[in-house]
Amino acid sequence: MPSVCWLVPRVTQVMIAKLFYFLLISAVALPTKAEEGCHQLRSTAPFKIALFADLHFGEDAWTHWGPLQDVKSIKVMSSVLDDETPDFVIYLGDVITANNIAIKNASLYWDQAVSPTRARGIPWASVFGNHDDAAFVWPIEWFSSPGIPEIRCRVANSSCSGEEECHFEGTQRLELMKNEIERNTLSYSRYGPKELWPSISNYVLQLLSSDNPKSPVALLYFLDSGGGSYPEIISSAQAEWFRQKALEINPDSRVPEIIFWHIPSRAYKKAAPWFGIHKPCMGSINKERVATQEAEMGIMKLLVERPSAKAIFVGHNHGLDWCCPYEKLWLCFARHTGYGGYGNWDRGARIVEITEQPFSVKSWIRMEDGSVHSEVVLSP
Amino acid sequence: MPSVCWLVPRVTQVMIAKLFYFLLISAVALPTKAEEGCHQLRSTAPFKIALFADLHFGEDAWTHWGPLQDVKSIKVMSSVLDDETPDFVIYLGDVITANNIAIKNASLYWDQAVSPTRARGIPWASVFGNHDDAAFVWPIEWFSSPGIPEIRCRVANSSCSGEEECHFEGTQRLELMKNEIERNTLSYSRYGPKELWPSISNYVLQLLSSDNPKSPVALLYFLDSGGGSYPEIISSAQAEWFRQKALEINPDSRVPEIIFWHIPSRAYKKAAPWFGIHKPCMGSINKERVATQEAEMGIMKLLVERPSAKAIFVGHNHGLDWCCPYEKLWLCFARHTGYGGYGNWDRGARIVEITEQPFSVKSWIRMEDGSVHSEVVLSP
Fold first, then answer.
1. Which terminus of chain A has a smaller tally of CB atoms within 10 A, N or C?
2. Complex ipTM, two decimals?
3. Domain spanning A10-135+171-377: which superfamily?
4. Pick from A50, A56, A183: which is nearest to A111 by CA?
């Protein structure tokens, strides 16, 4: 059945009942990782994506509290994955809290965060948040009495403890992504074009239908909104990359485009509901001010001008989970999925469901306790 | 003549006319660097130290402006060294602006900063400032059009340019100090006790008289006041180290102690003159508010209680150059020496002169243009 599907990852062998498939369009690949990949999806159902936002694995890694939150976050993801059985998962940034991780390779925590998805054979993609790539931040309390606690820096089979074996310099975006990609055949993440570095997670995935493999159902764009080791920004260069890529693969704006990044652009502030959440906005919590990127450098202008751009999904604000219209777009927050990070609002995950004929995007929020709310149709 | 002087550095061969000498009391040494060192000083004159504060080498390293400032800073140091011919130099932190340096080894710039002193065969010691050990800070402008400039990352004989060969992770305190010590026989800097890490530049030098080598003239304490990769702080552990060290080598507070670190402690705020500078304070500029450490964790309490502690010298505030009494101590600012760093006040260096019999500490400021001002006696 899958005719255009070359370089089929191993996982496709266990997913043969599916009829859609993914085709990776654009990425800078490692020599060890093919540039193209494809993935078959379920036949009858629409294509369902679960967004896991702000997991913050590794937060307060040296305390009892921290590792306990990570266990709870795994429970949230497991519950959502079992309730929704999505076709795909998107890790929407702040997968880890790197500034609390004093080991050389923060990928240890990243790997824990993707484990519930991997264990179920579900493919995924990820974008970076501001907490993923940051230097270790020394707590000032450690410099007063009783001093620096003994940090356990055990990694895999090599045991180490104490300061000498620990590492306080952080793990860079490129290394985190390298580790994700090389260790996981299910990962659809990419490094992005080198000319956009230090911004890394910039790539696009093409969703194809097996009924008509030459006619894409949608384009899923992933952009790195910065933060941590460099400013919280989507750069002019990224906007230009998007412009050229869109011109190349979707010149007539015929294929719908859905966009994912971590930190809200400034437009989110304009679209935000004032008190509570009223139609046409849809959501359940509106508990804080939108924390936006540091500047707007062109990406929003391009997106609002493209009729094919349907919706943007971001994380970052744990106390916001609304979708609001903005120009011809929808601007959506995900839902805080992790027990790491600030805020005690109940945990959950935003689900995005794409239907092919006629094309539609529907979204709702699935909570840890199994309940569902805030369903909204994001396309005509 | 130098009877207690073991492990005489090579430099002593060219300084045989001197009668005082230094003996390093306390340091954690590398295997390649002896723990003890000694240094002979001039016979007739008192012991004269030049403080070079806030040089900020490597600032705006990718522009034309930046490297030009470094050339000017070398001229300031050269002028002061030739006018004063000091016996010793203290680099009082912010030797480099690490957050502007995109090469793997920021020691390249550190080395430029110590070169005028080394070229004259003058020994020196250094303490860290908040700008010496920091990650590269990406300017937000680089993410707008026209993008990231081509950075020249040429190091020594290996030529490299462009992003791939550059390095944006910073050079840690330990590596900077390792490079200073291993490359320079004239350096009296030390790593400090390992239990104080990440705080590095914590050590004490003993100034001995050749007339009576068993009776030290003064103890010079160096403390790392943090900043950059960890909080701006002198920790409880550092205070405890000072307490124990002082008890060990100066139990009866008989030997005068002079202290050097980079960021003013909170006591400086209490001692600061209000408008202008009036007696008993002495200085020439009082142009900004004291920018203090983030907290006070015990060092000041120990110092004000010791009759032997005579004065503290700091840098950090480029617009302050006063000395003011505080309890039984003197709190002094150095003078902004470098053309790097904020502020356009004329450049200069504070000179500290120690006389043995009777013991006295005198200080003044020598300007780049050769003028001298703000002379003050810091001991009875």
1. C
2. 0.85
3. Metallo-dependent phosphatases (3.60.21.10)
4. A183
